[in-house]
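Quick start: load a record and inspect it. Here is Reverse transcriptase domain-containing protein:
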Amino acid sequence: MAALILLEACSEIAGKQTIFVTTLDSQKAFDVVSHEILMDRLYHYGLNLNLWNIIEELYSGVTSSVKWKGETSTSFDIHQGGVLSSHLYKAYINELLLDLQKRNLGTHIGNNYVGCPSCADDIVLLSLNREEMQEMLNIVDNYSKDHRFNIHPQKSNVIIKTGKKHKDPENSDAFKMGNNDLNCSDRTTHLGLTRSTKDETRINAEDRISLARRTLFSLLKTGVHGSNGLHPKSSYRIY
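Running the structure step on this input writes:
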């Protein structure tokens, strides 16, 4: 749904309009979540206390180790990998998304707010205005500092998509995330899909074909003929 909303918002621009699309990369998103803040957030959301206690137990003092050739490594803390992780991360950043909506920062489709269509740590910001986009980035930066996670400036990108009658924006000043400049490029990735200033459909189609080709070639040695390799239905689907 987040990918669809982003696609629809970009398709709404026409003529002389411009839309700024910023994809944000949360550095080690699930590893750095403050469990104290998370559990407090879940409590205030009214989560059933029995479930609250179970989640607290699940995420308290969880460790793992590696066993290799009869030897076991020292244990280390782990903070991700559970089936609940992405859902809990949504609760962790939900106030950020609500704050942007309450301030009415970001673009709309009709009367519907679509300024930050996100899924867990895949956050995207949409705006038709350069100054508004920078204000949204300032809010995200302050929220990340308050909630003890970092936005990776080198892995976050801004692309500027324009209508058919619009020339490239003259004001190309870099956007800021705190004291860091964000990359302005012609291409970025959101939820596994490439978002580009042009030829977006062709790029995604070629990427999917390339992935399928690499998958097929990597499995040739194991056998895709069905006699001692993959199930014929799996081979057929890959092909």
